[in-house]
Structures are given as structure tokens and as C-alpha cells.
Amino acid sequence: MNNQKDFIDPSAEVKNLVLALGADIVGIADPYKLAEVSGKKNPFSVMESTKSVITFGICMPKEIMECVPESKYQIMLTNHFGKLRRIAKKIGSWLEEKGYNSYPCHDQDNIEHKKAAQLAGLGRVGSHTLLITPQYGPRVHLNSVLTDYPLNFDRFLEEELCDQCDECIAKCPPGALKKGFEVDRRKCLIYRGSELKRSYCGLCMKICWDHLGCP
Questions:
Q1: Which residues form the 4Fe-4S ferredoxin-type domain (predicted)?
Q2: CA distance 169 to 182
Q3: Reported pTM
């Protein structure tokens, strides 16, 4: 008979794996609650058998945040997106080896990673619609893995992390941010195309990071 001490909590095992693969934060969200707040962009539209949403993030180094939106930031951002995909793929392979189905997401999938992260207790969405975390403020990028592995869901973070200063709204170059947690994607894309040669902006992230004095 197996000793109770040998029991490994599946949720803890998954989280330890994600962190070992290079993520800085990880949580598990309820796919049904995510579907309720995501409309058409819900996990069941991607993987019908989803029972758990494993959401994780990696933080942008402080020295790179000082360079937003210069080339160093663009290079690191590209590296981050690649790293997020690689971590998701490795998690998916591990889950399938255990006999569970999985879907490693990427940035083009119809999954609301920020909403999933919020439900998983990783942080709260601010006025700029970015996730603000207790550990790193807004300087995180996210990805998720869907699976039919039944795991324990994390609790929603009750603490409000955005102080509604609205600096991000006032200082957004194209005026794409609006009160009420809204973004005019068209204005954002036009600005990126005309002023940044289609590079990513990131100024709202930096403005928030500077204002909050985040670690």
C-alpha cells in the first residue's frame, strides 16, 4: 500500500513543472467561469473537453522596461512570445504522456489569457486592460494550456491592484485607451503602423510600472 506521504497533489505537480520550465507565475482557472466572461473567445470553442485552464506568465526584465518601446524591448518581446509557446508545448507533451488531452495555446488563439489569469488568482486587469500582478506589476506576458486533466482551481484575487490613476489613458499616444477598461484596437494598430513601423508599443505597460513603483 502506498504511503500517504508519497501522494503528489496533481495541481501542485503541474505548477511545479510550469515554473521549472521557466515561467514566473502560474495558476489554474475554471474553464466554465472563463467561458462566462469570454463570449465567443472561450476555451470550449478551442477544446470542447477542457476541464482546466493552466495559465502562466513570464516577466519582462526591469532594464528592458526602461527601453520601451526601443529595439531592445522589441527583441525581448519576440523572445518572450517564443518562450511562452515552448513552455506551453512542453506542458502539453507532459500531459499527454500522463494520458490526458491538451491544447497548448499561442498568441493567435481565441483564448482570453488575461481573463484566465485573473480567474486563476494571478492578478487583476487594470484600466489599460493589461494584467497587473502583485509580484511584477504589469510587466508580464501570458499564455495558457487547455486540458481535460481535472485540477484544483485557484481563487480569484480580491485585492484591487489598479488605483484608477488613468495615467495610461491620458498618456496613450494615439488615444486608444478609454475609461471602462476599453481599447480602441484600430487606433492602436494605426499608431503602430504609422509611428512604430508595426513594432509593439508597450508604453501603457511602462507608464503603469513607473506609476505603481512595481518591483
A1: 153-182
A2: 10
A3: 0.92
Residues in the chain: 215
Query: Is 4-151 a domain of CATH 3.30.1490?
Result: no
Close Cβ partners of 62 (under 8 Å, ≥ 6 residues apart)? 139
Query: What gap in Å lies between CA 17 and CA 90, rounded to an integer?
Result: 9
Nearest CA-CA partner of 151 in 55, 14, 8, 4: 14
Query: Tens digit of pLDDT for each residue in 82-94?
Result: 999 999 999 999 9
b/e sequence 79-92, b meaning 16+ C-beta within 10 Å: ebbebbeebbebbb
Judged by phi (left if over 0) then psi (alpha if -120 to 50, else beta), residue 147 lies in beta
Q: Is 134 exposed, middle or buried (0-12, 13-18, 19+ CB in 10 A)?
A: middle
pLDDT, tens digit, 9 for 90 and up, residues 52-95: 999 999 999 999 988 888 889 899 999 999 999 999 999 999 99
Q: Would you place residue 3 in the very low, low, confident or very high pLDDT band (cuts 50, 70, 90)?
A: low
- Per DSSP, the residues of 104-173 read E--TTSS--HHHHHHHTTS-EE-TTS-EEBTTTBT-EEEEEEEESS--PPPPP--S-------HHHHH-T
Looking at residue 7, its pLDDT comes to 72
List the domain boundaries for the chain.
4-151
Which cell numbers in the block locate residue 215?
A: 518591483
